[in-house]
Amino acid sequence: MDTLLDATATARLLPPIALADEIEALLHDPAVQVPERLVQPLPGGGSLFVMPALDAHIAITKLITFTPANAGTPRPAIQGDVVVFDSATGERRLVLDGPTVTARRTAAVSLLAARRLAPRPEGPLLIVGAGAQGLSHLEAFQAGLPVREVLVASRRRESAQALVDHARSLGLKAEVVPDPDEALPRCSLVVTCTPASGAVLRARPSRGTFIAAVGSFTPRMVELDAQLCRDVAADGTVVVDTPDAAHEAGDLLQAGLDVASFPSLRDVVHGRVRARGPVLFKSCGWAGWDLAAARAAMKGIGVNSAARRAFEASGFEARR
């Protein structure tokens, strides 16, 4: 028997702090295996992503489509599922909502990086991009860091205002800012989470700044100005989420940097990185992060246990 979860039920199983802790635990687990993901171009400019991963107990595949043309329409840019199997029996145990997993685990990865690398984790926090990733990063940073003030910049003021309103509902001081470069000197935490169709941040960050750039994940996509990336590489610290960023991190590749020379988040959690100056954390995504989300969800739902029965009795909305 398995459980098919909608976006609301999936989100309930992936609280930011617990998920960040699970991601850190995964980076210490020698049983984890993550084959290279398959990215298949689709007619119309979209892509199909097939992302498997496994550990000693479960195997997962994230199967999603990414359709940039859906931006600004009622259809989400990311659609699909994360399917979780029991490694020993081969039985399907969970089907999680793919876009929710993507948003939650990406923000939790950024949270883990900020916990370890941010010189001034209290903020203020500048979020550039007010979509699903902007929302998930707001909630993750508010939950896991001592942030009290948030500034939001977006191409659409309505989206920025909606995210500001949500921040205020969480008890934060928040405002919309028209120019992220002008706001940058005020902020020690920055997240860029845009469609990555052009540079949205150009100003040189101060030495106490931590930037998590999560919007671009192909060589052609970019959010950060090339000179900004080169300046941080020369005078600060650049960390990538995984070595796969060597052929995916468009911001760094377009800046002409040797991405393979930068340490990864695994190096950080194993104590092999000492940050200096401004910090740029470049996140491109990895099926290992989805595996961590599946592990957290399995623990949260208590599969084959009283916890699962209690969860099912709580009235979650399952997809049928």
Automatic annotation (TrEMBL):
Annotated InterPro entries: NAD(P)-bd_dom_sf (IPR036291), ODC_Mu_crystall (IPR003462), ODC_N (IPR023401)
The organism's place on the tree of life at top rank: Bacteria
Cited Pfam families: OCD_Mu_crystall
Protein's organism: Ramlibacter humi
Coiled-coil annotated residue ranges, if any: none
Lineage: Bacteria, Pseudomonadati, Pseudomonadota, Betaproteobacteria, Burkholderiales
A GO cellular-component term linked to this record: cytoplasm
SUPFAM superfamilies: NAD(P)-binding Rossmann-fold domains
Protein name: Delta(1)-pyrroline-2-carboxylate reductase family protein
